[in-house]
């Protein structure tokens, strides 16, 4: 009887502290590859992380497979971007007590005051502020702080190790941020047009001026009248560069380039969406070098 009770108590303890995988690691599921990279930066060797979406797919319209759903339900921690970045997340119907960490809490958010029409539930229209906040390297600080808190709650004994990994990561990030800022310093205030408002945080951090987004409402394609106004405005304002995403409609990008005379540069919005951007540092390294090449 005592042995059964002891077993019951130890199982209850596992349920409270969160499941640990066979390899003794904390099972973490993230909604994006960028959050996976940041969890790995803090969790080092203590976490096993899986991202629900692949960086080469549109994160706003993910189809979650049954195996992923099972992993999600047994995860010790689920880290998501939040706001309306993952319109599919609520349809997962996770139990009320699921260990979800919303990484947008504590991040510095932009465009939260922009009134947005919520066209439909599936849409990703930045209704609560721009969701692409991981593209400001400074936001890695509050996001990794939330992750560190979440991991430490699961494994208090690893607190010092998580803190040390995060400090080392942020130290390297600060060093590189100085170099990225220096590389883009000659182009401060340069006017650019984006297709989707993916680059709001990036532009704000590195001093580019986004004069317009081709999608007046994020996620909603522009009308031909809106396109005509946009390209006229670009010619008048002397906008030389269009920033596209890998998911941008090639026909739309081509049309704007042809009618405005501006050069297109495709930037990489997520870790792993390009082989050369295989971690959080190389993501910025690649984007800064592509921009410099386009602006030079
Ligand atoms: Zn967006």
Secondary structure layout:
Blueprint: H1 2-17, E1 26-30, H2 33-43, E2 47-51, H3 66-74, E3 77-80, E4 100-102, H4 140-154, H5 159-184, E5 191-194, H6 200-206, E6 209-213, H7 224-237, E7 241-244, H8 250-260, E8 263-266, H9 280-295
Parallel strand pairs: 1-2, 1-3, 3-4, 5-6, 5-7, 7-8
The structure holds zinc ion (ZN).
CATH superfamily of the largest domain, called what?
Nitrogenase molybdenum iron protein domain
Portion in strands: 5-15%
Total count of domains: 2
Number of helices: 9
Structural class: alpha/beta
Strand order of the largest sheet: 2-1-3-4
Q: Give the rounded overall mean pLDDT.
A: 90
Strand and helix order: HEHEHEEHHEHEHEHEH
Pick out the low-confidence regions: 1-17
Bound ions, cofactors and other small molecules, one mention each: zinc ion
- What top-tier CATH class of the largest domain fits best? Alpha Beta
CATH architecture of the largest domain: 3-Layer(aba) Sandwich
Largest sheet: 4 strands, parallel
In one word, what is the shape?
globular
Terminal residue distance: 76 Å
Q: If you compute it from the alpha carbons, what radius of gyration comes out, rounded to the nearest whole angstrom? A: 21 Å
Q: What is the third-level CATH name, the topology of the largest domain?
A: Rossmann fold
């Amino acid at each position: 009887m005592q042995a059964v009770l002891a077993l019951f108590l130890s199982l209850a303890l596992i349920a409270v502290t969160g499941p640990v995988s066979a390899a003794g690691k904390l099972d973490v599921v993230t909604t994006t590859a960028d959050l996976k990279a940041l969890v790995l930066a803090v969790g080092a060797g203590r976490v096993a992380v899986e991202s629900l979406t692949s960086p080469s797919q549109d994160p706003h319209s993910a189809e979650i497979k049954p195996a992923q759903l099972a992993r999600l339900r047994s995860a010790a921690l689920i880290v998501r971007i939040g706001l309306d970045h993952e319109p599919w997340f609520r349809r997962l119907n996770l139990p009320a007590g699921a260990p979800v960490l919303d990484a947008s809490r504590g991040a510095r958010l932009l465009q939260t005051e922009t009134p947005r029409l919520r066209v439909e539930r599936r849409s990703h229209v930045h209704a609560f502020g721009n969701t692409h906040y991981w593209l400001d390297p400074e936001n890695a600080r509050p996001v990794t702080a939330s992750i560190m808190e979440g991991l430490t709650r699961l494994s208090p004994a690893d607190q010092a190790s998580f803190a040390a990994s995060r400090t080392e990561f942020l130290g390297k990030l600060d060093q590189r941020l100085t170099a990225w800022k220096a590389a883009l310093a000659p182009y401060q205030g340069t006017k650019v047009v984006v297709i989707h408002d993916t680059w709001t945080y990036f532009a704000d951090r590195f001093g580019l001026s986004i004069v317009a987004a081709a999608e007046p409402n994020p996620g909603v394609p522009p009308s031909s009248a809106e396109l005509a106004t946009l390209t006229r405005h670009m010619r008048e304002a002397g906008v030389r560069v269009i920033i596209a995403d890998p998911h941008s409609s090639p026909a739309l990008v081509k049309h704007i380039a042809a009618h405005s005379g501006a050069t297109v540069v495709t930037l990489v919005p997520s870790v792993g969406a390009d082989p050369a951007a295989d971690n959080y540092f190389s993501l910025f390294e690649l984007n800064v070098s592509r921009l410099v090449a386009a602006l030079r």
